[in-house]
């Protein structure tokens, strides 16, 4: 029981890190399954290159797009954006929207980079693709047997009679693994530099960030509870009036404009430090005032978590 509680506490304290770890493990396991059970190199000079590249890059592209689909920030940015007159300025200034897209891309790139790195370490996809590349074959077979270039595409299936072709297969696997480790090192260095920079540029302190996350967790829990209670009461009243042919009681429900404003992407303003769009909404000076864009509002990368907790996940949407 104590071990279970320790795991639960770890999940509550580091949900994003554990989420990335789970995505990485699932992606790596999926790649291994594909390479063993699905991938079969055709060992053809015409098909090796496209076949190997398809298995190496197309799943990575699919995972990248899936990362966008599963991100709540994507739908917060796009939902209602194109409706005529529904959200004036809803898409935000171009620079702000571009910055949000960069953040979304960085998050969505975790799974595809994992796929490519694990695939390169395994070597099967790269061996197949590289053995079908004529320029690379000429480069590898320089100074070797004359039949090396013609037989190299057969090497992944161990059908090449020339010993040089089978030796080159080991060289291709070594190249693949070196590229895989280089990719892993580059990603780790980039993440370290990027994380250090956004932490350094953080407009709030470390302890205030911790408080901020606690506040958001509590706000979303209460919002979900109150929304469920309000929706249930409203539904009961409407169904009751339908069957009794009576007039419903008046319920105060936020307007379309109200929902649109608290559903906008969060922007930070050092003059008014609100912890969420809901917090900003209830403290606006005038009811008609728009809270989505003010002078001094900026998108801060380290505060991207404001748009993603609780009810804001795609699972709840």
UniProtKB/TrEMBL annotation:
InterPro entries, alphabetized: CALHM
Molecular function per GO: monoatomic cation channel activity; voltage-gated channel activity
GO biological process, one term: regulation of natural killer cell cytokine production
Cytoplasm keyword on record: no
Lipid bilayer topology: Multi-pass membrane protein
Database matches in Pfam families: Ca_hom_mod (PF14798)
Cellular compartment(s): Membrane
Keywords linked to the UniProt accession: Ion channel, Ion transport, Membrane, Transmembrane, Transmembrane helix, Transport
Keyword Membrane found: yes
Membrane spanning residue stretches: 20-39, 51-70, 97-126, 178-201
Principal localisation: membrane
GO cellular component, as recorded: immunological synapse
Protein family (similarity comment): Belongs to the CALHM family.
UniProt protein name: Calcium homeostasis modulator family member 6
Source organism of the structure: Panthera leo (Lion)
């Amino acid at each position: 029981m104590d071990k279970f509680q320790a795991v639960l506490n770890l999940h509550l304290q580091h949900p994003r890190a554990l989420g990335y770890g789970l995505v990485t493990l699932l992606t790596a396991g999926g790649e291994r399954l594909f390479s063993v059970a699905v991938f079969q190199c055709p060992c053809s000079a015409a098909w090796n290159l496209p076949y190997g590249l398809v298995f190496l890059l197309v799943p990575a592209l699919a995972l990248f797009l899936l990362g966008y689909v599963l991100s709540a920030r994507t739908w917060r940015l796009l939902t209602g954006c194109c409706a005529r007159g529904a959200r004036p300025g809803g898409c935000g200034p171009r620079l702000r929207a571009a910055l949000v897209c960069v953040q979304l891309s960085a998050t969505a790139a975790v799974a595809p980079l994992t796929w490519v790195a694990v695939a390169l370490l395994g070597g099967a996809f790269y061996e197949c693709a590289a053995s079908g590349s004529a320029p690379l074959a000429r480069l590898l077979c320089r100074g070797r047997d004359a039949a090396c270039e013609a037989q190299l595409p057969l090497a992944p299936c161990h059908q090449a009679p020339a010993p040089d072709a089978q030796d080159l297969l080991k060289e291709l696997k070594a190249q693949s693994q070196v590229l895989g480790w280089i990719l892993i090192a580059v990603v780790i260095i980039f993440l370290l530099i990027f994380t250090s920079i956004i932490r350094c540029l953080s407009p709030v302190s470390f302890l205030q960030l911790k408080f901020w996350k606690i506040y958001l967790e509590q706000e979303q829990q209460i919002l979900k509870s109150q929304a469920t209670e309000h929706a249930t009461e409203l539904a009961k009243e409407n169904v009751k009036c339908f069957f009794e042919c009576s007039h419903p009681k008046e319920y105060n429900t936020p307007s379309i404009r109200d929902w649109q404003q608290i559903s906008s992407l969060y922007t930070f303003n050092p003059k008014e430090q609100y912890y969420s769009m809901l917090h900003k909404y209830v403290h606006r000076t005038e009811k008609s005032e728009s809270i989505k864009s003010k002078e001094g509002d900026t998108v801060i990368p380290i505060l991207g978590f404001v748009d993603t907790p609780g009810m804001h996940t795609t699972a709840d949407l």
